[in-house]
Amino acid sequence: MSKYGNVVAVILGGGAGTRLFPLTRERSKPAVPLGGKYRLVDVPISNCINSNITQIFVLTQYNSASLNRHVSRTYRFSSFSTGFVEVLAAEQTKDSDEWFQGTADAVRQMLPHIRDWRIDTLLILSGDHLYRMDYRKFLKRHFSTDADVTISVIPSAREEAEGFGLLKTDGDGRIIEFKEKPSGEALEKMRVDTTRFGLSKEESENRPFLASMGIYVFNYKKLTEFLEKDNSWVDFGREVIPAAIESSNVQAHLFKGYWEDIGTIRAFYDANLDLASRLPKFNFFDTSSPIYTRSRYLPPSKMHDCDVTDSMVSEGCILNGVNAVGSILGLRSRIDPGTRIEDSIIMGADFFETYKEIRKNEENSLPHLGIGSNSVISRAIVDKNVRIGKNVRLINSENRQEFDAPDGSYYIREGIILVPKDAVIPDGTVV
Q1: Please, what are the domains in the chain?
Q2: How far is residue 364's CA from residue 387's CA, in Å, rounded to a whole number?
Q3: Is the whole-model pTM more than 0.85?
Q4: For the packed helices 103-114 and 220-229, what is the interaxial angle rounded to 10 degrees?
Q5: I need a surface site. Which of 16, 198, 301, 369 has the fewest CB within 10 A?
Q6: Are 131 and 46 in contact (CB under 8 A)?
Q7: Residue 1: pLDDT band by 50, 70, 90 thresholds?
């Protein structure tokens, strides 16, 4: 128990993740791989652990098997600790036979599972954001202002603001107005002078909106009152927060660091490739606040006659004569000679194939796990356990922006090629 009483974190796993399809075809959003070896859910969980918050629930309702597997294998606290990370999937009960209808409804349906924990404060997080935050500062703001609810906010540019809940505060940081995803004239009315929050005049002109990060601290008793007041309130942004502003002390906590909502294929692609840049916006090398993930005890990667530039290479890779530029090569990636990888995310594999298995697959004209020789992969996301043959060119040769292959072997979203998990791309294929 912290000095703020008993704090429990709830990480919202989101809906079906349709905007991240096909990466979410067989997994929930929090379980989507990140940075070659992590999962999206590792970010908020690690932030919690680094903030000494070790009682964590992850809520999900779609494709939760891989998330369950990852969490159970990764986050094991001491038997003498009260810490845990537990996945709670949506379920039908005698009180509710419906799936989660929104963020607030998900927490409402979860309350019976946590009532016995004698909770003072509930920290509500999202499972698909990339950022590093010390939640102790968030909690300090919440308690120093005697708030019922505190919302973490970030200065936002106009082109981004339409996609978020926007708010206004008084001089003391108390939220006095909240609009969920306004547009047009309603958007313009939400402009604020962000110099009051420490931004320079130039920064304030570029980022004149305060956007909700979808991260909340609730007084637990107040939260239960809100959720029990009206069962038709299913979303925090649309219903609960506006109602709370009218009746309660709702405060803003300004976050000035890097934050990215990984809700679309474009956002996922850009955020991942930035990790491989020379000065990434998000730094995995910060030893003071590490991002944890599953320990796999894989061998070091082997690279023979390779040219690898501005890229990240994970453990257990076997690279022969590979030219990789601005890319991420995930766990157990096996790539053959003459292959060029550029501006792409290769997620790797969940297991190694033996030489015997590789030879048997060749006899059956099945490529080995990984990428065959003399192939070119450009501006692509290749999911796990994919088999790409020899002389394959995934280059979007027709410059399509949106396309679904009839056999489901690949998709194109915003000009980015996506090869789904377990797909097979035969020798000589050109996309």
Answers
A1: 7-275 (3.90.550.10), 302-425 (2.160.10.10)
A2: 13
A3: yes
A4: 120
A5: 198
A6: no
A7: low
